[in-house]
Amino acid sequence: MDNQTNFSQEYFWNLLSKKLAGEATAGELEAIETVLLQNPDLQHQADMLSQMWKQNSNKDLSASEATYMRHLMKHKEDFFTELPNIDQEPLHFAEPDISKLSSVGKFLLNRTTMAFAAIVIVLVSSWLIFFNGNKKEDKKAVATAASSIVTKNGNRTKITLPDGTQVWLNAGSKLDYNNLLYNKNSREVTLSGEAYFDVVKNADKPFFVHTHNFKIKVLGTAFDVKSYPEDKESETSLIRGSLEVTVPGRQAKFILSPNDKLVVNNRGNNVFSEDIETEKIEKPVVKEAETIISFGKVNYLPEKNIILETAWVENRLEFRSEKFIDVAKKMERWFDVTISFKDKRMENIILTGTLPTGTIAQALEALKFAESLNYTIEGNNIIIKP
Amino acid sequence: MFGYFVTLHDYCLFMEEADDIFLLQKKIANNDQLAYRQLFIRYYDGLFRFAIGFTKNKELAEEIVSDVFINIWRRRNTIENISNLKLYLYVSAKNITFNYLAKLHRENFTDIDAVEIEPEAPFSDPGEAMITREMNSKLKAAISQLPPRCKLIFKLIKEDGLTYKQTARLLHLSVSTVENQLTIAIKKIAGTIRYSLKSH
Fold first, then answer.
1. pLDDT > 90: what percent of chain A?
2. Sign of the CA dihedral with B170 first, then B173, B179, and B184 last
3. What residues make up the domain containing A210?
4. What's the burial of A40, exposed, middle or buried (CB within 10 Å: 0-12/13-18/19+)?
5. Quick check: A49 and B124 CB within 8 A?
6. Cβ atoms within 10 A of the Cβ of A59, count?
7. All domains of chain B in start order, with CATH
8. Which pLDDT score is estimated for A272?
9. Are residues A347 and A237 in the same domain?
10. What is the C-alpha separation between A115 and A94, in angstroms, rounded?
């Protein structure tokens, strides 16, 4: 090969690079064509390079979606500072009894003022809780005072445990922990219902969540646990970090990585009492029936841009190919109502979608429109009919 | 699976990127969280893979990119003034990375010749491009074996779509250095293609 060809070749690759990068001038593009005409053996390589360059990055968008979720949760105050209208059910700290508020309190809860005084409201709310006279009328217990936080159906709340770990408690749930022992050698909570945890990292004091039928060990992660005793299944979904899940009666431990989900079938009355300190399993009350466990990925809903399992943390009632009877259960907890079906066959209707979470009437109207059904409301009881 | 995502209007794969990011910028400046989310989803991966080249640690890289984006959100009212948001994101990622690494007393953390970039597979769907899997892995290997600086520049331009000028500014190099480095990468890859052809 003579010098001329060598020089051209070097120049050719330089120009081709520019072309691929979108930096070539018209003159340079022409020069490329000229060289290709003179050196057709270069054509194939040029074509391949072009093709390779055009390949869209094979990004895993659902992973990015989960990462975005973690980003939001990490900076919750930045993204959820606007407290919603108090007519809607917001996700916020324990709600003060409005009638008991002084006029100052009412002023601060006014929607316009709220937009400007978000931080102040957070502080004032905490203050107001303590000064709320009649504790009996309080529907929600306060984290700092008690070791037990209960959300009745229709309410969701967020609490911060003594070590800074945050817990978002879904409707109809209960979180127990020992105020004195928590954060001594370990951090233990017991959950019945559903909660989203954002655990502060502390390798020396492992965090344990005990539920009806599994135990979770964590070291600084964000994850969701759903374990309502009355449900057929319990599940835990991991958003960030790693979890170790132990199911009583099973040898193996399950390690979850982000976006993994573990579902445990609640079949059989697996009632155990575990001595938290010694981790000894005492007296199984009923002989263990078979526990069915399945392992999967969390459900990312691309068109809704959220993760299904933690949609409720963002205040959305989502469901995906679920039976009406199961959706009805979610609605019962969310709105604090009871729902029954006049025609039992309607229980098996498969639903997919999002429900407005303002009032039960709104949700029912949405369903009525979508599914051509009817309903009657009698106080807190809803009857679904064809 | 990938085809499904392509059809979503959200990911704007068919819009001109430059116009698109400008539109996002405007929306974000007006508190549009959905636009912010779009920005995040679109640029997270590239920024993460850039940061991790320096940190060599996943958690730190994620933290860094999260910082980049939270700063954007916190300053959203002023970001309309940024003439080149994409470059801004990368420069921000670099600065935050260097800050963290300095605090961790890492040595030579600013040395781009010590960067460990893991390139993407050249063809995500080899079958469609009519190349063999063997060729695809040969290409991936060829890119992997590029010298660190060259590989980094290749990644920024090819995968992240930065211009020569943007890349030069980001890495404090001259445009001609960037140009030369990319040429080296292209030649190497072309060589692999040519060699594979010959051996058949």
1. 8
2. negative
3. 64-95+139-308
4. exposed
5. no
6. 20
7. 9-110 (1.10.1740.10), 113-198 (1.10.10.10)
8. 34
9. no
10. 19
Q: Which of A 132-171 lie inside 8 A of B, CB atoms?
A: none
Quote the crossing angle between the two packed helices B17-29 and B85-103, to the nearest 10°: 70
The partner residue sitting opposite A71, judged by closest CB among B11, B40, B180, is B40
Q: Could you tell me if A237 and A224 are in contact, meaning their C-beta atoms sit under 8 angstroms apart?
A: yes
The number of folded domains in chain A is 3
3-class DSSP assignment, residue B132: coil
Contact B40 A48 (CB under 8 A): no
Could you report the per-residue pLDDT of A160-183, keeping only the tens digit for each? 888 888 888 877 788 888 877 788
Helices (H) and strands (E) in chain B, counts: 9, 0
Q: B192 pairs with which residues across the strands? A: none
Is the CB of residue B190 less than 8 Å away from at least one CB of chain A?
A: yes
Q: Give the β-pairing of A260-265 and A233-240.
A: antiparallel
As to burial, measured by CB atoms within 10 angstroms (0-12 exposed, 13-18 middle, 19+ buried), residue A341 is: buried
Quick one: A232 and A257 in the same domain?
yes
Residue A353 lies in a domain: yes
Q: Do A167 and A258 lie in a common domain? A: yes
Q: Which of A26, A100, A127, A55 is nearest to B131 (CA)?
A: A55
Q: Looking at beta carbons, which residues of chain A come within 8 Å of B74? A: 78
Contacts of A59 in chain B (CB under 8 A): 45
Contacts of A267 (CB under 8 A, 6+ apart): A232, A289, A290, A291, A292
Measured between its terminal Cα atoms, the distance across chain A in Å is 85
- Reported as half-sphere exposure (CB side, CA atoms, 13 A), residue A214 has a value of 30
Question: What pLDDT, in 10s, does the model give residues A108-153?
Answer: 344 433 333 333 333 333 333 333 333 333 333 333 333 677 766 6
Contact B190 A49 (CB under 8 A): yes
Joined tokens for residue A316? 């959305």
Please count the residues of chain B. Answer: 200
Do the domain assignments include residue A74?
yes
Residues from chain B contacting residue A58 (CB–CB below 8 Å):
2, 120-121, 124
- List Cα–Cα distances, B115 to A205, B91, B109, B173, in angstroms: 36, 16, 8, 15
Q: Whole-prediction pTM value?
A: 0.51
**Count of Cβ atoms closer than 10 Å to residue B108 Cβ:** 9
Q: Which two tokens stand for residue A231?
A: 């449900």
B15, two tokens: 């819009």
